[in-house]
Write a structure and sequence with these properties.
Elements (H helix, E strand, L loop, with lengths): L1 E2 L2 E2 L6 H12 L9 H13 L8 H15 L9 H12 L9 H19 L6 H15 L4 E3 L4 E3 L1 H51 L27 H9 L36 E4 L16 E5 L2 H7 L18 E5 L4 E4 L14 H10 L22 E2 L1
Antiparallel strand pairs: 1-2, 3-4, 5-6, 5-9, 6-7, 7-8
Length: about 400
């Protein structure tokens, strides 16, 4: 019967179901089958006769219900707690142990799901494959199990075969999907870097080969104070979009879902918060600054720095860590000669760590423990114009 937008089944009673089975097995001959079988035979006979008058309104209603059932369902989305847990997990370098206790349980589930999508899980061993195929052979020989009153039969071996196909298909498809997703993000970033290189060239032509810089120095706040153009290093890069040498979409990485793609108003001079910034820009503090010129190999832009993200939140840092924009696989960088490249470590072509100023690198090298440095303060500056040091 109809109830709202749902159609509910009205099953036959057990005596009627038995009578229907008997009628089918007798080839719809009612002799000796009793009164219930005769009534069922008469009812079924009406379905093919002329006694039923077509109802156009019922036909229209049925078609509307079919169309409604075929409409796409709304896309699923994360609730606010899961969004916060995912953000915290990214900032913690995908280590759930470093996420706050309130979000740690959800962060562990995010990490488990990420591992499944990214790697497809551990590959099935040869022994597992052999045992699965052997199980299929054994079960295929077993007697079929009847399902339902219609006497349809499905073999257990068929079910095992389907499960085996799903297992093998998942082990092949999931790693491919993860690799394609990672490659797509890298391609988007490479395209962004090339567009930004063109914008930098235009800016340099108009400004005596200099890089974008809107203030002579930083204020009392750390240079990762995004949203405060007087202190924020990101405001220099934002100026390139405000001056229309690039678009804000060119400065938005596909791996950062919080990155805006349009300048919200004419008064905007910086991103609103640290999480919106996709790319780190060469820290423009210190006594000298590199120019935009041929032959120079200084990193001026890269995917956002995990060292800055953790330092700004008071977490311990790992200078050898890759950017969270690409799940820790590496980072795209733009050099001051206009070329772009993919780095699988934070070291620039000359061996310079792009997350740290050279004076801190020397301290770490001196004590020979690259994990012993606690965090940045946000007031560091490059040691020279040849020092590749980006943030935030």
């Amino acid at each position: 019967m109809f109830e709202g937008d749902d159609i509910k089944d009205a099953p036959l009673s057990s005596p009627d179901a038995d009578a229907l089975d008997a009628l089918v097995e007798a080839g719809f001959e009612t002799d000796g089958l009793g009164e219930r079988a005769e009534r069922l035979h008469a009812l079924l006979g009406r379905l093919g006769g002329s006694q039923i008058t077509p109802d156009e309104s019922l036909t229209d209603l049925t078609m509307l219900r079919i169309q409604r059932a075929q409409q796409p369902q709304p896309e699923a989305s994360l609730d606010e707690f899961d969004k916060d847990a995912l953000d915290a997990l990214v900032l913690a370098g995908f280590d759930p142990a470093k996420v706050s206790a309130a979000l740690r349980s959800r962060a562990r589930r995010h990490r488990a799901l990420s591992d499944l999508v990214g790697s497809g899980g551990p590959p099935a061993s040869a022994d597992l494959t052999e045992r699965t195929l052997a199980k299929i052979d054994v079960e295929a020989a077993q007697e079929a199990i009847p399902i339902g009153r219609a006497r349809r039969r499905v073999r257990i071996g068929d079910l095992v075969s389907i499960a085996a196909l799903i297992l093998v298909g998942a082990s092949l498809i999931l790693p491919i999907m993860g690799a394609l997703r990672a490659q797509r993000f890298q391609n988007v970033c490479q395209s962004n870097m090339m567009a930004t290189a063109m914008g930098m060239s235009g800016y340099a032509i108009d400004n005596q080969d200099s890089l974008p810089m809107i203030t002579a120095g930083f204020g009392a706040k750390p240079w990762w104070s995004v949203g405060d153009p007087e202190s924020s290093n990101s405001a220099h890069l934002y100026h390139l979009a405000r001056s229309e040498y690039v678009t804000l979409e060119d400065l938005a990485c596909a791996g950062n879902r919080r990155a805006p793609t349009q300048i919200p108003s004419d008064e905007s001079r910086d991103w609103r918060q640290l999480d919106e910034v996709s790319y780190a820009y060469r820290v423009m503090g210190g006594p000298s600054h590199p120019g935009w010129q041929l032959g120079s190999r200084i990193v001026v832009i890269s995917d956002r720095s995990p060292v800055v993200l953790k330092s700004a939140r008071g977490y311990a840092i790992d200078p050898s860590e890759n950017s969270p924009n690409h799940d820790g696989l590496g980072q795209q960088v733009l050099l001051s000669d206009g070329s772009a490249m993919w780095l699988t470590t934070p070291e620039a072509p000359g061996g310079d760590n792009i997350w740290l100023p050279s004076q801190i690198e020397h301290i770490i090298d001196a004590i020979r423990d690259r994990h012993s440095f606690d965090r940045l303060s946000g007031r560091e500056a490059p040691a020279s114009k040849d020092d590749s040091f980006v943030g935030p």
